[in-house]
Specification:
Blueprint: E1 2-8, H1 22-36, E2 40-47, H2 52-62, E3 70-72, E4 82-89, E5 93-103, E6 109-121, E7 134-141, H3 148-167, E8 174-179, H4 188-194, E9 203-204, E10 247-252, H5 253-257, E11 262-264, E12 270-271, H6 293-302, E13 308-309, E14 312-314, E15 329-333, E16 339-343, E17 351-356, E18 361-366, E19 371-373, E20 384-389, E21 395-400
Parallel strand pairs: 1-2, 7-8
Antiparallel strand pairs: 2-4, 3-4, 5-6, 6-7, 8-10, 9-10, 11-14, 12-13, 15-16, 16-19, 17-18, 17-20, 20-21
Length: 402
């Protein structure tokens, strides 16, 4: 779940605490989270000048009334008055490491940092086999506005993200979540994400609905801002009703095709509280039955954005009589440039398939021994993958060194 919390504990002349009460917001957020029950929560617009705001969400909105499952990541601000806060269910996810992207490609400060969190799935069988599923989350809140300067800042931020990914080729599953503040897919910043010059690392839009999202009825089901009309925006909230798609979940091809044991559940993207019937209206008028009335009120009072959720399928570890894990496999290249694959004994008699990122088969064959070499692979930039399938019909896919 990703959610812009609208100046949580960040008070301004146009948005004072009297119009944006933080204690009330903590209660509303608790209601919303308990209704949605996410395992991962990405928040934007938390007061970046006071780290206690980050902690207060954990201790006053999440871990309350006997709940203890939530944990927070570190808080990176880079001097910005609003920052990202990331929270996760520690019973389901573990944080392997964390860093941030704070500079553009010219080594100038970004308007706001991009949080980079490397998570792993806490499979119940981890005690028997330490291998599990990892994924990397990029959490961002890009510069708002339609000026050439604003658009340029979003361009710089997205290029910095793609450059980071390109320089860290070991990342298999990765996602970006947050308020991208773009009104259309044609904007250069969005194109940087989905049509980068190194095509193998591109992000994918789960609903694949490119176009001019702003004030466009054709995209009414995707809109997630604003929850209010102009008459009820209270000075602090944006008005105009639901007519923008600012908040996103995007992910790479590994997740798009489920190549690395984690995949997007098709059709699960949801702007919570958008029933498709409130284009250019507030979410509470006319009647909205998409969520219970108390949740609708919490969404209306909490922020001028709606939370956006997705579901992900995770392939859990499987323990069989012969082996603790779907095929153990290692791919490597020797000094002579020959690519080799090592597999476990249970994979002998199974099959292997080498393919590119478009799913096209390059080579395939039967596994006849625990170490075998591959036919000559194409000498080209990009990524090739190999899937090993053993006699128990368990499979594993990994990248091949080129």
């Amino acid at each position: 779940m990703t959610y812009n919390l609208l100046n949580y504990r960040n008070f301004t002349s146009w948005c004072p605490s009297s119009s944006n009460n933080p204690i009330s917001k903590e209660g509303y957020l608790n209601e919303i989270v308990n209704h949605i029950e996410p395992h991962l929560l990405v928040c934007n617009e938390i007061n970046g000048n006071n780290s206690s705001a980050h902690s207060r969400i954990l201790n006053h909105a999440l871990n309350i009334n006997g709940e203890t499952r939530w944990e927070k990541t570190d808080f990176f601000t880079n001097g910005s008055s609003i920052a990202n806060g990331i929270y996760y269910d520690k019973n389901v996810l573990g944080l392997k490491s964390q860093e941030s992207i704070s500079k553009d490609l010219s080594n100038q400060n970004l308007v706001r940092v991009i949080d980079v969190c490397h998570f792993f799935y806490k499979d119940s069988l981890l005690g028997q086999n330490p291998d599990t599923i990892f994924f990397t989350l990029f959490a961002g809140h890009l510069k708002a506005g339609s000026s050439s300067s604003d658009i340029s800042q979003r361009d710089k931020a997205t290029k910095a993200i793609m450059s980071f990914i390109n320089s860290n080729s070991g990342i298999d599953n990765y996602l970006i979540a947050g308020d991208l503040n773009m009104k259309k897919s044609q904007e250069l910043g969005f194109q940087n994400l989905i049509n980068y010059s190194v095509s193998s690392i591109n992000f994918y839009d789960p609903e694949n609905q490119p176009g001019n999202w702003n004030n466009n009825y054709n995209f009414k089901d995707l809109h997630n801002q604003s929850t209010r009309d102009g008459a009820t925006n209270n000075g602090c909230f944006s008005g105009g009703g639901l007519d923008d798609r600012f908040n996103h979940w995007l992910f790479n091809n590994d997740i798009n095709q489920g190549l690395s044991r984690i995949s997007y559940v098709s059709g699960s993207l949801n702007a919570v509280g958008n029933d498709g019937l409130h284009f250019n209206n507030s979410i509470i008028s006319p009647t909205n039955n998409s969520v219970p009335s108390n949740i609708l009120n919490a969404l209306y009072e909490m922020s001028d954005h709606l939370p956006v959720t997705i579901d992900l399928d995770i392939e859990r570890l499987q323990i069989g009589e012969k082996e603790h894990y779907s095929p153990a496999v290692r791919a490597w290249k020797d000094l002579n440039g020959v690519s080799w694959v090592d597999v476990s004994q249970s994979s002998v008699g199974g099959t292997w398939r080498c393919f590119d990122m478009m799913g096209r088969t390059i080579h395939s064959g039967i596994i006849r021994q625990t170490r075998f070499d591959l036919p000559m692979l194409p000498e080209k930039n990009g990524i090739l993958l190999i899937t090993i399938r053993n006699n128990l019909n368990q499979s594993r896919t990994l990248r091949l060194p080129l």
